Amino acid sequence: MLLRLAQLSKNQREVAEAVRIVPLKKRVSMIAGADVARNGKYLFGSMAVLSFPELLLLDESHAEQREPIPYVPGFLSYRELPVLAKAFSRLKKKPDLILVDGQGIAHPRRLGLASHLGVVLGVPTIGCAKSHLYGDYEMPEDARGSYTFLKSKNNRIGLVLRTRNNVKPLFISPGHLIDLDGCLCILLSVTPRYRIPEPIRQAHRMAGSRARSA
Questions:
Q1: pLDDT at 214
Q2: Which distant-in-sequence residues (6+ apart) come within 8 Å of 150 by Cβ?
Q3: How far apart are CA 43 and CA 35, in angstroms?
Q4: Binding region
Q5: What is the domain count for the chain?
Q6: How far apart are alpha carbons 14 and 8 in whole angstroms?
Q7: Binding residues for Mg(2+)
Q8: Which domain range does residue 121 map to?
Q9: Model pTM above 0.90
Q10: CATH of the domain at 166
Q11: 3-state SS, residue 212
Q12: 74 within 8 A of 33, measured Cβ to Cβ
C-alpha cells in the first residue's frame, strides 16, 4: 500500500502541473454540483445541473461502480473521480462550472478532487469542503459572507467562508480554470438558504438516496 501511495503522490504532482488558476473566461449560466455516496464497497456518484443564478434544476445524472481504492486522506480523487467522470458523461446539459464536495488546490500536492476532476474534464471547478485538510488560517467572523484566507507558505490557496450566520464555515479553494475572486462571487450566490451550496446539496441528496436504495 505504501508503494502504491508513493506512485499516486508522484502522479498527483504531475497532474497538478496542468492545473490553471485563472479568472473565469465565460459567463456562467449552468452550475453542477458533484457528490459521491457509499454503500458497502460501491460508490454512487451524482451530478445536479442548476441554472445560474436562478438555481433551478435542469438536469441530473448518476453512475455507480465498485470503489477502486479505500478512502485515504489526500487521495480522494483516485477513489471518486472515475464515478463522477462517468456521471458527467451522461449529462445532457453540460455545466459551465462544477462545484465539488472536496478540495481544490488546498491540498498537500495541490491536487484535490476538484482540481483533478477539472483537469480531466476540462471544465472550471471549485472545491467546497466541509472540513479542513491543508493550509493555515484564522477563523472568520460569525456573519454570512465573512472569510479569511487559507495559506500555504504565505501563498493564498483558498478561503474559509461563512455562508450562514453563526454556522461552521466552508473551506473553499479553486479547482481549475477559476481564481479566488471567482470562487467567492459564485459561492455567495449559490448559498441563499443553506450552509452547503445548492448544487452540491442537491447532488448529495440524489447520491445518498441511490446508495440507500441499492
A1: 83
A2: 106, 134, 135, 136, 137, 156, 157, 158, 159, 160, 171, 173
A3: 10
A4: 35, 101
A5: 1
A6: 10
A7: 35, 101
A8: 2-213
A9: yes
A10: 3.30.2170.10
A11: helix
A12: no
